[in-house]
Amino acid sequence: MDKTYNILLVDDEPGVRESVQAYLDDDENLSVTAAENATKALELLQTFTPDLVISDIMMPQMSGYDFLEKLREDPRFKTLPVVFLTARGMTSDRIQGYQAGCDAYLPKPFEPEELEAIVKNLLTKEEAIAETQSGGDANLDGIAQDLKEIKQFLGQQNQLVTTPPPLKIDLTPREQSVLDLVAQGLMNKEIAKQLETSVRNVEKYVSRLFGKTGTNSRTELVRYALKHGLTQ
To answer: Over the stretch 8-43, which tens digit does the pLDDT of each residue have?
Structure first.
């Protein structure tokens, strides 16, 4: 692990939050942001995208199960690794946790070393998957060609009809930069190199753009962006 991973910790017990945060923050590759309940966690997720979530199950207002369900409804977090921490250790509870979409389940009380091992294992797997997926960029020449054809088509259309007014979508400066480069036909590796960031981060921004525009592919994203004046 040669980068810093952001972890969101959600637990209504102050003692658990403080001890887990202190232990994991001791690792130079891990940075923990804590929330006292699921509602606060959902608010935090509007401002940053963690690499992994650690959540209690039995919490007031919203349970860990309901919190996880809301996470999976958001395109940005469909594959986000989630570890459940809970005092409930029955087999049926673990089954419910896995059915809800968690990646690991650790009953309380637990050893911090075991939690750290689980976290690092999940992060390593996610990184390996991201690298494998980015390796497929070499096979995306067809997508790049599609993007060029879309721009040419829309250019011809713009000569015939008036361009609709820009659609109001709040994009962060980095999301706008990624969108502009995607519209130029650049692949994730090329975008990462130009923006001096990791391929994994580029994939996250592209996923956010899919969610904000309601699109499911790079081709749809560029068509949508050009149509609504989100990029040039």
So the answer is: 999 999 999 999 999 999 988 899 999 999 999 999
Q: Which letter, b or e, does each residue of 126-156 get, where b requires 16 or more Cβ atoms within 10 Å of its Cβ?
A: bbeebeeebeebeebeebbebbeebbeeeee
C-beta separation of 182 from 173 below 8 A: no
Query: Which segment of 59-68, 120-129, 162-171 scores lowest on mean pLDDT?
Result: 162-171
Per-residue pLDDT band at 144 (split at 50, 70, 90): low
| 3-class DSSP assignment, residue 78 | coil
Task: Annotate 157-167 with b (16+ C-beta within 10 A) or e (fewer).
Answer: eeeeeeeeeee
Interatomic CA distance for residues 163 and 46, integer angstroms: 31
Q: Round the CA-based radius of gyration of the chain to a whole number and report it.
A: 20
Domains and CATH numbers, the chain: 5-133 (3.40.50.2300), 140-227 (3.40.50.2300)
Question: Best-predicted range by mean pLDDT among 2-6, 25-29, 163-167, 218-222?
Answer: 25-29
- What are 126-130's contacts with CB under 8 Å, separation 24+? 126/51, 126/52, 126/79, 126/81, 127/1, 127/200, 130/199, 130/200, 130/203
